Amino acid sequence: TGTPKGGKETHAIYFCSNNKLNLKNGSKLEIKNYAQDALEWNGGDGGYNVNLTNSTFISDHNRSGFTGTFGVKAVNSTVRVINSTGNGSNGSHFEFIDSFVDFNNNGAHGLSAGNLTISDSTVNANGNGGNGIHVTGALEISNDSNVTISENQCTINSKWTIPGALYIAGKSEIADSTVTI
């Protein structure tokens, strides 16, 4: 953490060539106060991955936490994307297993995903300017997960979205879990 150097066009971590970011065994990555994105991709062919195992990722007051189509897998980890000036995320595929997740108080959508899998996890998407959770692909919530979506303004209406606390464009399944809107 610290004060970013480099001005308004600087991203904290910029991915190219199908990079992978792996956080393991108690690692913590905290990115704060970037006018651009915490994690950004260069628009390649989709081989970008962020893997967390027993670790923590925090994006606080950046333009966005995850921008682009990443494959994000968090196992027994904490993911907090909070206070973004734009979307908390934008189109990544997320898999949360036995994890704690916050996408709260972001200026636009909170958790915006392609596919979203939540298993044995707690996920909060509260106080966002757009939709709380926005899924353009498949949504699966299972195995005693708890999802809370509250106090989102749901103000974005475009060719990509219709306002709603929970927006699902693809197949969805919720089993043995609690979703509170």
Protein traits:
181 residues; globular; single chain; seven-stranded parallel sheet; mainly beta; nine-stranded parallel sheet
Low-confidence stretches: none
> Percent of residues in helical segments?
under 10%
Largest sheet: 9 strands, parallel
What's the number of extended β-strand segments? 20
Quickly count the helices: 0
The N- and C-terminal alpha carbons lie at a distance of 33 Å
The average pLDDT is 93
Structure in words:
This protein is mostly beta strands and 181 residues long. Helices cover 0% and strands 49% of the residues. It is built from no helices and 20 strands. It is globular and about 35 Å long.
Give the arrangement of secondary structure elements.
Blueprint: E1 13-15, E2 20-24, E3 28-32, E4 39-41, E5 48-53, E6 56-60, E7 66-67, E8 70-75, E9 78-82, E10 89-90, E11 92-97, E12 100-104, E13 111-119, E14 122-126, E15 133-135, E16 139-142, E17 146-150, E18 166-168, E19 172-174, E20 178-180
Parallel strand pairs: 1-4, 2-5, 3-6, 4-7, 5-8, 6-9, 7-10, 8-11, 9-12, 11-13, 12-14, 13-15, 13-16, 14-17, 15-18, 16-19, 17-20
In short:
The protein has 181 residues and is mainly beta. The chain has no helices and 20 strands.
